[in-house]
Amino acid sequence: MTGSLLRTVDLRLAFGATQALAGVSVEIGPGELVALVGPSGSGKSTLLHCLAGILRPDSGSVWYRGVRLDDQSDDRRSRLRRTDFGFVFQFGSLVSDLTALENIAFPLRLAGVRRRVAEARAREWLHRLGVADVAGKQPGAMSGGQGQRVAVARALVTGPRVVFADEPTGALDSFNGELVMDELVGTAREQGTAVVLVTHDPRIAAYADREVVLRDGASASTEVSA
Ligand SMILES: Nc1ncnc2c1ncn2[C@@H]1O[C@H](COP(=O)(O)OP(=O)(O)OP(=O)(O)O)[C@@H](O)[C@H]1O
């Protein structure tokens, strides 16, 4: 497909005797929201980690903006993760001894942005996600929903081309889960950021433009969401 942003070709990866990925080929377009769904153990998180350049497949390939990603050095892949990708995980991925403001400013600081500028931008994001009141709090002093909104801000603050979200609402009740999804999806669409989302929850998957269904490490089907 022309115009694909991320693509895998016949991806295979085993952990010992477990074939986590057994030949997965998927494509993700710029700004597209794709949900990876399927039963527990079907390979969703493993596929997300391969797409993000965190795990290397045993065979097959991963392409990002037309360049092969999986055979690049660890250094180059981690640099790309800092510059082009954002991450939201289930819970507890914020740095526990940094405040909300410092957590959001952190990826900007890693990218070489000066502290004052980074913190001003982080403050804007706290307002944007409705959690300005937790700016000076550490993650342990926030609710689950507040923490995930801070995590969404941290993932989007650098203006990434892709956000990878692994069960981003898994630890939240459905009300807070939907609020976090509204914010993640709304801001991603505004910025033209693609989102690759792993979820068990059909209501969360329904936010995506398309669902990729995995079964036993293979992409069983791809469906356009209603
Ligand atoms: N680091 C690892 N070491 C050993 N086995 C692993 C590892 N990571 C994943 N697996 C195995 O690979 C298979 C796919 O795991 P994966 O986490 O990708 O599935 P999943 O669809 O995301 O599951 P879930 O919905 O339960 O999170 C599973 O059988 C799992 O036990």
From TrEMBL:
Q: Name one Pfam family in it.
A: ABC_tran
ABC transporter domain ranges (all copies) = 6-226
Asked if the keyword Nucleotide-binding belongs to this entry, the reply reads yes
Keyword Transferase: yes or no?
Answer: no
PANTHER family attached here? ABC TRANSPORTER RELATED, IMPORT ATP-BINDING PROTEIN
Q: Which CDD domains is this protein grouped with?
A: ABC_MJ0796_LolCDE_FtsE
Q: Which Gene3D superfamilies match?
A: P-loop containing nucleotide triphosphate hydrolases
* Organism whose genome encodes this protein: Plantactinospora endophytica
For this entry, the protein name equals ABC transporter ATP-binding protein
**Which keywords does this Swiss-Prot/TrEMBL entry list?**
ATP-binding, Nucleotide-binding, Transport
What GO MF terms are annotated? ATP binding
Enumerate the SMART domains for this protein: AAA
